[in-house]
Write a structure and sequence with these properties.
Arc Repressor Mutant, subunit A, 2 domains, extended, transcription regulation, DNA binding, MJ1563, transcription
Length: about 180
């Protein structure tokens, strides 16, 4: 499989983004290749396109499966496994966010909850707990808000995002009206 310069640029960029999302560059490249390819690909095709070992592809596929980002397909009279993205771009974004929440936010919330249960031993710990409480409340609010967003349809999410700063303006107007009374 030969990649054009545009496709290769996208795939390489996905590798860089993958490292920011929480998986390695090669796994990001593999996912980028799968996203923009209209047919399912075998491990051998992925290996050849990215010039990586078959073993590296196998490990990458396992990583993508743990993130629930790829699906395996079988074709009649063919023993090979074919891989493609599991769902739409919206579903992919939700899964990445969900996995990052599980891996990063949830453990932080657990640590903060545990630390907030203890009585502070001195003023320094009291101040630290106050800051941890603020962080806990922020993360809880963000997690709750994100959970609500995940339950929305892609169409509603798209509409909400297009509203953007308009929502903030409506809240400002509401606050001004309430303050006049």
């Amino acid at each position: 499989m030969i990649m054009t310069a545009k496709i290769e640029s996208f795939v390489m960029h996905c590798g860089e983004m993958g490292s920011r999302w929480g998986f390695n560059r090669t796994v990001g490249q593999m996912y980028g290749l799968l996203i923009i390819h209209n047919d399912s690909l075998t491990a051998l095709q992925i290996s050849a396109a990215l010039n990586i070992s078959r073993g590296n592809v196998s490990m990458g596929i396992k990583e993508l499966q743990s993130w629930r980002l790829v699906q395996v397909q079988h074709k009649p009279k063919d023993r090979k496994e074919y891989y493609s993205p599991a769902g739409s771009i919206w579903e992919m974004a939700i899964r990445v966010f969900e996995e990052r929440r599980k891996r990063e936010v949830d453990p932080t919330l657990s640590l903060l909850r545990d630390n907030l249960l203890d009585e502070p031993a001195n003023p320094q710990e009291q101040y630290a707990q106050q800051k941890m409480h603020e962080m806990h409340d922020l993360l809880e609010t963000i997690t709750h808000w994100a959970s609500e967003l995940q339950s929305m349809s892609p169409e509603k999410l798209n509409t909400l995002m297009k509203l953007g700063a308009g929502v903030s303006k409506v809240i400002d107007i509401k606050d001004k009206l309430l303050n006049k009374n």
